[in-house]
Amino acid sequence: MRLTYVVTPGDFANAGKISSSVKSLLKQLNIPPGDIKRIIVALYEAEVNMVAHSYGGEITCDIEAEQALVEALDVGPGIPDVGLAMTEGWSTATSEIRELGFGAGMGLPNIKKHTDELEIVSGKDSPTKISMKFYYRGGPS
Amino acid sequence: MTLREIVETVNATVLCGEENLDREVESGFASDLMSDVLTLLTDNILLITGLSNNQAIRTAEMSDIQQILFVRNKVPTKTMLDLARSQQISVLVTSYSMFKSSGLLFAKGLKPVY
Ligand SMILES: Nc1ncnc2c1ncn2[C@@H]1O[C@H](COP(=O)(O)OP(=O)(O)OP(=O)(O)O)[C@@H](O)[C@H]1O
Ligand SMILES: [Mg+2]
User: Fold this and answer.
1) Which residue numbers in chain A have pLDDT < 50?
2) Chain B: nearest CA to A24, how far in angstroms?
3) Cis preceding linkage at B76, omega within 30
4) How many angstroms separate the CA atoms of A16 and A7, rounded?
5) Ligand 2 centroid to residue A111 C-alpha, Å
6) Is the minimum distance from the CB of A130 to ligand 1 under 6 angstroms?
7) For the structural domain made of A2-135, what CATH number should be given?
8) Do B33 and A141 touch (CB under 8 A)?
9) H or E element, residue B106
10) 3-state secondary structure of B113
11) Ligand 1 within 6 A of CB of A50
């Protein structure tokens, strides 16, 4: 099953709506709770990043019987140094983002921690594409 | 400890989720950083925070946290409470500081996540 959602940049009031819809859907599909949690936490971090740091884009979820692939693709401005951005605590978040409780520089490391396979393709003045793969492990959350 | 004991310990007001006061809560986590909360894999947590916005509720939702205590009288908005209700999240508010709330709850046996 493939689902596509549009992410509006700067729309903090609605940030999390996509993750919330996907979460209900995964529950309906009886995906194991522990896997739902991993997928949703990673998706939510990616969704908030897109709202906070990008010019907008799309999130696509491919939900299959044994695995899920989540792709977040935005239209820029890109991450100049992905290796640096993956460092815990590294952030370019504005004070507005910090006031919302984000900007700790923990999102990308957290995504890494929750995914089985992670690929980030970006660059200065480029789109950012984050591909996250999850193989269901079963078990509780 | 139960949610009811938590309410009594920090002299909190229950804004939604009164029906869950008998729920057992294992541990507590105090933070204003949502990504910190999102690193937790533990279940059955009370989130103690001074961050009063939609993202606090959303973060609880994504982390399967079923109860939030807002400290320093950070009263949540109606939108936040509607969101919490739709996710069966109980929302409490206390006038105590984050430090005082955490200290009192710790002393009463609410465990730290780490
Ligand atoms: N989609 C994106 N487009 C452009 N830059 C991004 C994107 N995602 C992340 N970044 C950059 O990478 C940095 C690190 O991201 P990360 O999610 O780890 O931390 P954060 O969003 O700043 O804070 P936190 O996630 O802890 O709230 C960001 O501050 C930003 O500079
Ligand atoms: Mg982030």
Assistant:
1) none
2) 10
3) no
4) 10
5) 9
6) no
7) 3.30.565.10
8) no
9) helix B98-107
10) coil
11) yes
User: Looking at domain B3-112, what is its CATH homologous superfamily?
Assistant: HprK N-terminal domain-like (3.40.1390.20)
* Residue where the block lists tokens 């990043």: A49
Domain boundaries, chain A: 2-135
Residues A68, A43 contacting (CB under 8 angstroms)? no
Closest residue in A to B42 (Cα) is: A141
Considering only the C-alpha atoms of chain B, give the largest distance between any 2 of them, rounded to a whole number of Å. 33
In what helix (H) or strand (E) does residue B5 lie, and over which residues does it extend?
helix B3-9
Contact A50, A57 (CB under 8 A): yes
Q: Say what the pLDDT of residue B42 is.
A: 87
**pLDDT tens per residue across span A100-125:** 899 999 999 999 999 999 999 999 99
User: In this predicted complex, what is the ipTM?
Assistant: 0.93
Asked whether B61 and B44 are in contact (CB, 8 A), the reply is no
Give the burial class of A52: count Cβ atoms within 10 A of its Cβ; 0-12 exposed, 13-18 middle, 19 or more buried.
buried
List pLDDT tens digits, range B62-111: 999 999 999 999 999 999 999 999 999 999 999 999 999 999 999 999 99
**According to the 3-state scheme, what is the secondary structure of chain A?**
CEEEEEECCCCHHHCCHHHHHHHHHHHHCCCCHHHHHHHHHHHHHHHHHHHHHCCCEEEEEEECCCEEEEEEEECCCCCCCHHHHCCCCCCCCCHHHHHCCCCCCCHHHHHHHHCCEEEEECCCCCCCEEEEEEECCCCCC
Q: Which of B36, B53, B63 sits opposite A106 (nearest CB)?
A: B36
Q: Is A103 in the pocket of ligand 1 (CB under 6 A)?
A: yes
